[in-house]
């Protein structure tokens, strides 16, 4: 059986450098997450390419620590293309908490409005519901129109959870 080629060689031969200086992985990418994977050799399975790149170019990764991308700021908020970057200059170590805080600061991982996968109404629907109530239709009638519960329409017409909480804490 021929010897397996060096992991670093196999990793770097499937990279294209883009305009941001990202080393964009061109090999296998997981459809669900957008992260690249590569076989690590010697029957050890596969690993995420950005983690492999960190280990090959930098150092080990302590338990419970994430390899994060600083280049995510170059991409639109709704893009996950940065996850294919394996440029060690674009990678840094952080905790899960730090990674999540950065993602929220950049507007990623936000599930407000249109980007919420569980949303029932588009922003245009919310505006229509508000206009219907302002025009004299009852909340129950609007709820039937959108095939939603009375409380769901009341929530959206009121301005969301922040508005409901603010009203709850107002002095009489």
Report on the structure:
It is built from 7 helices and 6 strands; from the N terminus they run H-E-E-E-E-H-E-E-H-H-H-H-H. It is α+β, with helices and mostly antiparallel strands and 172 residues long. It folds into 2 domains: 7-110, Homing Intron 3 (I-Ppo) Encoded Endonuclease, Chain A (Alpha-Beta Complex), CATH 3.90.75; 114-168, no CATH class. It has a two-stranded antiparallel ribbon. The mean pLDDT is 85.
TL;DR of this structure?
This protein has helices at 7-12, 49-57, 96-105, 123-134, 139-146, 150-158, 161-168; strands at residues 15-17, 23-25, 37-39, 46-48, 66-69, 91-94. The protein has 172 residues and is α+β, with helices and mostly antiparallel strands. The longest helix is centred in the C-terminal third of the chain and has 12 residues, at 123-134.
Instruction: Give the structural class.
Output: alpha+beta
Going by CATH, the architecture of the largest domain would be Alpha-Beta Complex
Tell me about the biggest sheet? 2 strands, antiparallel
Q: Given this structure, which CATH class of the largest domain is correct?
A: Alpha Beta
Count of individual domains: 2
What number is the mean pLDDT? 85
Radius of gyration: 23 Å
Any idea of the CATH topology of the largest domain? Homing Intron 3 (I-Ppo) Encoded Endonuclease, Chain A
How much of the sequence lies in strands comes to 5-15%
Number of helices: 7
């Amino acid at each position: 059986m021929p010897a397996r080629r060096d992991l670093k060689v196999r990793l770097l031969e499937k990279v294209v450098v883009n305009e941001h200086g990202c080393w964009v992985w061109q090999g296998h990418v997981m459809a669900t997450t957008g992260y690249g994977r590569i076989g690590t050799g010697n029957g050890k399975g596969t690993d995420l390419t950005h983690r492999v790149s960190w280990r090959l170019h930098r150092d080990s990764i302590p338990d419970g620590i994430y390899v994060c991308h600083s280049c995510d700021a170059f991409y639109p908020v709704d893009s996950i293309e940065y996850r294919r970057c394996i440029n060690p200059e674009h990678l840094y170590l952080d905790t899960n908490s730090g990674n999540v805080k950065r993602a929220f600061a950049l507007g990623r991982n936000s599930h407000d409005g249109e980007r919420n996968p569980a949303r029932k109404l588009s922003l245009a629907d919310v505006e229509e519901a508000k206009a219907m109530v302002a025009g004299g239709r009852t909340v129950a009638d609007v709820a039937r129109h959108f095939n939603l519960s009375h409380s769901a329409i009341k929530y959206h017409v009121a301005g969301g959870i922040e508005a409901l909480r603010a009203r709850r804490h107002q002095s009489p």
